[in-house]
Amino acid sequence: MPLNWDNVINRYRANPISRTKTGKVFRVSRVTNTAICIALPSREQYISRKNLEAAVRLIEEGTKIPGPAEYRRLVSDERPAFAWAILRDKGFVEQQKVERFNITAAIWEEESVYVSKCPELGVASCGDTAEEALDNLKEAVELYIDNAIELGIIEDVNAALKSCPKFTSTFEVTV
């Protein structure tokens, strides 16, 4: 069954709240004829109708899209965690078991941009605000872990993901 855009509009008008595969809550701020707009801390991000319809066509042809990483690989790098959640909300993909990890984030300002990094995985992102940098890092880490699971290499990063407690500190170095 193709993606019925009127149903998409009605769903997010009635309930604009959704969750990514890993449980991150997000809000759909509006749906236009060409895109779904996601409200992020510093600005709206868009998921194009064209990309969602392309994903639905792939699913109808029998292609599995088990998570955001596969959506990114097969369809688009356009906010894959949110796009996959929209496909799930509309019944095109199924939610699988979710495992939660406590991850460290380091955030700093660099030339009017906030940089965020996950030292356990070596994953980094950025944003216009510290909050946006953290949100973008969370999405990047979700994609990294999702890719590791899909590629069968999650065991390579499990020690870093599951080590508790974690200690972070700052210190001064004189050179």
Give a quick set of tags describing it.
21% strand; 175 residues; three-stranded antiparallel sheet; four-stranded antiparallel sheet; 7 strands; alpha+beta
How would you explain this protein's 3D organization?
- This protein is an alpha+beta fold.
- It has two domains: 5-89, no CATH class; 106-162.
- The chain has helices spanning 5-14, 49-60, 68-74, 80-89, 130-151, 155-162, and strands at residues 17-19, 25-31, 35-39, 44-48, 106-110, 113-118, 123-127.
- It has a four-stranded antiparallel beta sheet with strand order 1-2-3-4. Strands 5-6-7 form a three-stranded antiparallel beta sheet, covered by helices on one side.
- Helix 3 (68-74) packs across helix 4 (80-89).
- The chain is globular and about 60 Å long.
- The mean pLDDT is 90.
